[in-house]
Amino acid sequence: MTDDQFLTTTRATYAIVAESYGKVVPPVDEDPQDRALLTAFADLVRAHGGGPVADLGCGTGRVTAYLAAAGLDVSGVDLSPEMLAVARRDHPGLRFSQGSLLDLDLPDGGLAGALAWYSIIHTPPERLPVVCAELFRVLRPGGHLQLGFHVGDRRHHRTEGYGHQGFELDIYWLPVERVCALVTEAGFEVLTQVLRVRNPDTRVPQGRVLARKPA
């Protein structure tokens, strides 16, 4: 699959499910483990001087809004115009823009923090080094990166979900150690890796990796 095909397919799927997505995916406040990890990320960014943060692959802006409430100067970026329309409607005080993890329209070293919360899961694994290089580029020295993803070692193809049928979407499950290797190879220092084996909202194990760009 070419980059254009992967991006086009992902964008088309989220155009279909944008309105129903927020009704299916629970708010961050309802999950104490996710809430703790995202709060820790916010605390680290503030403890190291604060500054701009980007929620990359922000979808409908639910995590963007949580980080803003936690005191961060955060904006959202997403591939899907339809998801961004919902985000702007539901969170009118926040900033959102369209973009791709493969080629972010952000300056070198401009971010104090970057979050990719389940937004790397649609990227073919062979393209993830490009994503990690972009994340490294846009973070300033000492900046923090938080990733969330599904854990496994396979491609999961979905044709239904979020209250809809008839779409085509690939989701890649990745071992935690592989994600750690990818961010390390991009230049990051891995600070924390978490494997969440059970989640009440999904049968798929969840991974979280917190990393830092060396100062």
Description:
Helices cover 36% and strands 31% of the residues. It contains six helices and nine strands. Helix 5 links the parallel strand 4 and strand 5. Helix 5 (128-138) packs across helix 6 (176-186). The model has no long low-confidence stretch (mean pLDDT 93).
Helices and strands in order, then pairings?
Layout (H helix, E strand, L loop, with lengths): L2 H22 L7 H16 L4 E5 L5 H8 L3 E6 L2 H10 L4 E4 L12 E7 L10 H11 E12 L3 E8 L2 E10 L2 H11 L2 E8 L9 E7 L3
Parallel strand pairs: 1-2, 1-4, 2-3, 4-5
Antiparallel strand pairs: 5-9, 6-7, 8-9
Helix pairs in contact: 1-4, 5-6
| Full CATH superfamily name | Vaccinia Virus protein VP39
Element-by-element helix/strand order: HHEHEHEEHEEEHEE
How many structural units, i.e. domains? 1
Indicate the proportion of strand residues: 25-35%
Largest sheet: 7 strands, mixed
The assigned CATH architecture is 3-Layer(aba) Sandwich
Low-confidence stretches: none
Order of strands across the biggest sheet? 3-2-1-4-5-9-8
The amount of helix comes to 25-40%
